Amino acid sequence: MGGGVGGHAPGVSLGVEEEFLLVDAASGECVAHAEDVLERAGPHRWRTSGGSFHTELLGSQVEAVTGVCHDLAGLRAQLRYGRARLAEAAREGGALLVASGTPVLGGSPPPAARGERFAAIVSAYGDVVEDYQACGCHVHVGVPDRESAVAVVNHLRPWLPVLVALAANSPFDRGRPTRYAARRMMEMARFPGAGVPPWSASAADYDARVAALVESGALVDGAMTFWLARPSPRWPTVEVRAGDAAATADEAVLQAALVRGLVGAALAELAAGREAPRADGQVCAAALWNAARHGLDGAMVDPVSRRAVPAWRLVDGMVARAAPALEETGDLDAVFALVEGVRRAGTGADRQRSAARRGGPRAVVDMLIRQTESGGLAAGTGPDDGTDAGPGRARGPLGGPAGRPGEPPGGTPGEKTGVWDAGERVPEPDAT
């Protein structure tokens, strides 16, 4: 991410990188319009604090990066802005912006983006990257130094599968249902060293491991690791890349808030002299596969206890783990509200499957387009509902009126909160 995160309080500053797909307005298939969209989008409104728009590996992908943020309302404003600006630029060129971990519909593999580094990646990995259109939500949180970053990553390891399950938003892959909630994890597994990172004793230990991967040719350079959490190679931050591209801005806010809370909890543990548990790498891999396969449907593997645990119990445990840090930043109530929205309404993967049952894969793409530009936890409201927030409008969990770009979420009076409009809700599961 951009900006000098290290200049701000450790465990408080944060930023988000969101990757999106571009699809043809007529067919719904991915199109290589990235360069045109980025040219139309122009500079980022928050560029002075690191906000930017970028290409990704393939020509059908674009990325919006927030500047350095310190509160969730400010982060949400930047997320809403980035999505709206890229969506507008895409629409001007006959494309549409979609937030999904993998493409819903098929189509010809797009060319790689231009640039020496992208060319080196294609040369190194061959046809593994030819149609690698996976998109994620990457969260950066400031930490004091590199030693702290490595130690924090150790503490995050057991929670990465839970973050994956909560953010699952890729059940389809190029026209077919995959039976995975987060198929993006399987796409990432194409690359060496993907998944939960190994436990590292120190920054030197971590760096030596990365250097060995580079020397072997498994990585193009030291900045290219595929682990779901790592010390950022550019900034004094911890970077967590567990979540699929978030269907809505609010779900990106939720990932960011939980990651910041978990980093805060880890820093507190380290200050008290407590190292992270050395959860077995193979059990972590099994937990990650289970999370990708089933999402929050059923049981998950707890890498520390090595037992199957109801998925939502692990989510609640993760929130409890992060709660002291969330309370310190004033985010606990907002996180409770956002988590409850997903609990009632389902993950992005749940909603994609529901849309497919109603209208097939194209209906999924249409729903994703709406969700990408929506605020999120504001049932029946959004940037295109044609209404202004007035005295009668509800307030959202982050404060402020609902449904306007760059403002926090809410809902109209009497509505049940969800993460899309009323016609797209997933039925709530039986309490039994």
Describe the structure.
There is one protein chain. This protein is of the alpha+beta class. The chain has a single domain (14-374), classed as Creatine Kinase, Chain A, domain 2, CATH 3.30.590. The protein is built from 13 helices and eleven strands. Strands 1, 2, 3, 4, 5, 8 and 9 form a seven-stranded antiparallel β-sheet that branches. The chain has a two-stranded antiparallel ribbon with strand order 6-7. A two-stranded antiparallel sheet has the order 10-11. Strand 8 and strand 9 (237-244) form a beta hairpin. Helix 12 (348-359) packs across helix 13 (361-373). It is globular.
Helix content: 25-40%
Query: Which structural category do the helix and sheet elements fall into?
Result: alpha+beta
User: Can you identify the CATH class?
Assistant: Alpha Beta
The profile of the biggest β sheet is: 7 strands, antiparallel
Query: Please, what is the average pLDDT?
Result: 85
| CA-based gyration radius | 20 Å
Low-pLDDT runs: 1-8, 378-396, 399-432
How far apart are the termini?
43 Å
Number of contiguous helices: 13
Which H/E pattern describes the elements?
EHEEHEHEHHEEHHEEHHEEHHHH
Report the count of strand segments.
11
Percentage of residues in strands: 5-15%
Assign the CATH topology.
Answer: Creatine Kinase, Chain A, domain 2
When the domains are counted, the total is 1
Q: Which architecture name does CATH use?
A: 2-Layer Sandwich
Q: Based on CA inertia axes, which overall geometry fits?
A: globular
